[in-house]
């Protein structure tokens, strides 16, 4: 096969594919005259670093593997009782998203990206979780959160209840409520908190404290009259009544105030005003409930920064009427980053000598995927990884069990044969049978399906690396759905080895509880009082950084390739 159509702006190697002699891994033929330009260390003008010439030497890979093997062999099991549980949840952060985010993080640091080591990559224990719900092969965030937080699988759209509850049927939830590990930790005397980039009433955080037949019952205004008559309550009111949560950080203030209450940040935006029909001001009620304690309610970064963790008992921070802004759109003068909110939460909670449980959710990864916006989803995942790094910095491995996982995945594909170091948000150098280019990342379904008269869009002159670009989708849907493959579970700290293998998603809650001696299973507590020091087992990769040694031969070879291309009239 000879490729004779080129994408403007691509590197020289995509042009060389028009010469027929040798075979590209994809099956395309290339010219032997340009073979040096396909060397693994050949870099192109759009790349900001040179690949290591050492990668051509087998000893480079053998030495690297030997070091990693020794690190694994030196690893010692940490069987301490976990004083703290730090739980990071990437909503919609399936393995494809995880991999693509790793590459993006490296490329944002002027690296090629593929060899980058994320903070979450360093966790020594890795497993997989099955995400299906009781009634659906592919689940939503409500059913999955109930599984990994409450230890019980349930039905789609329901939160904190068993599968005996029917979606949207209030009467069916009575007597079928199930509690979460956040409550088990609170009952054990630990401090507890939730941090999210969505509204605090959204599915993931709500599963820590609420019991509802519908994840959509954010306020009483969202509930049908029959449900209220049958005695069900909205999620926002349960945030106050069910569990005494020490730290609550996210968005969702419009569900907390009476209808018509103007928002302090957007007073002219009617959609941001209070929604409640019952006239309750839950923010004021929360403040009254904390009388005698040092409790702060804040809605902007200035007030948030002024909160002193050392003197604060309770914090409620609601930075938006609904969900927080995407990281790429966030105003750093108005809203703190997920790194900052994670740090504030930990510093408040860790004062408790009995420890803490903290859920930190990167919730808008999922929402960006639903919109078919890979740029936004990956930047949200990178931001979560930085929050994980901050969490590890502030805690001790011998006493803190840290978990990173996703609740479900999305139908985003990572495809084509992009060259090493090519932008993860760019286009494949190979074109399709319709003689049009396509992006490395695409969706199986979603709003990016734009076929007209049997032809898909020509994106040769489209910048696919912008935050507003919507990736192509194979099937037209208003919103991209979830996908049903297993998700990664990564663990570090006391009893991290419990999170290996392929497990049902509801197993996660029970394993965390066992490690921390909270909840019904107290076997791990017997004969163990304090955490003993353990060998630090974080795996590292010395290639993640700017420490590469770049030989003059690299520059010379690339210049020769450019000169050769000019010589033959390309």
UniProtKB/TrEMBL annotation:
It comes from Sparus aurata (Gilthead sea bream). Zn(2+) binds at residues 91, 366, 370, 407-408, 482. Homodimer. GO terms for molecular function: alkaline phosphatase activity; metal ion binding. Its cofactor is Mg(2+); Zn(2+). It catalyses: a phosphate monoester + H2O = an alcohol + phosphate. The active site is at 141 (phosphoserine intermediate). Belongs to the alkaline phosphatase family. It is a lipid-anchor; GPI-anchor. It is found in: Cell membrane. Its main location: membrane. Keywords: Cell membrane, Glycoprotein, GPI-anchor, Hydrolase, Lipoprotein, Magnesium, Membrane, Metal-binding, Zinc. This is Alkaline phosphatase. Its EC number is 3.1.3.1. Signal peptide: none annotated.
